[in-house]
């Protein structure tokens, strides 16, 4: 599993115009004042059964994903790792 600190573009836009961002900003410049802490998790699993179990466990822990502000979970096939 890989875990990354993350923030959506909407959150960055809602933060307002930043006068401290350089003309050619790096990602660290854009997220320097990030107040809310969010994580993005990536994982490659063996099969659909495991993906279904992970989705079910995720919803048990954080709540139903169709509610706002709970998260986003998606499954895509991986042909090569």
Describe the structure.
- This protein is of the alpha+beta class.
- It folds into two domains: 1-40, no CATH class; 43-81, no CATH class.
- The chain is built from three helices and two strands.
- The relative contact order is 0.17.
Spell out the key features of this protein.
3 helices, 81 residues, two-stranded antiparallel sheet, single chain, alpha+beta, 2 strands, extended
SSE topology sketch:
Elements: E1 2-5, H1 9-14, H2 27-30, E2 39-42, H3 48-62
Antiparallel strand pairs: 1-2
Proportion of helical residues: 25-40%
- How much of the sequence lies in strands comes to 5-15%
Q: Tell me the radius of gyration.
A: 16 Å
Give the rounded overall mean pLDDT: 80
Quickly count the helices. Answer: 3
Number of strands: 2
**Element string (H = helix, E = strand):** EHHEH
3D shape: extended
What is the domain tally?
2
Distance between the termini: 13 Å
Oligomer: single chain
Name the strands of the widest sheet in spatial order.
Answer: 1-2
Characterize this entry briefly.
By secondary structure, this protein is α+β, with helices and mostly antiparallel strands. 31% of the residues lie in helices and 10% in strands.
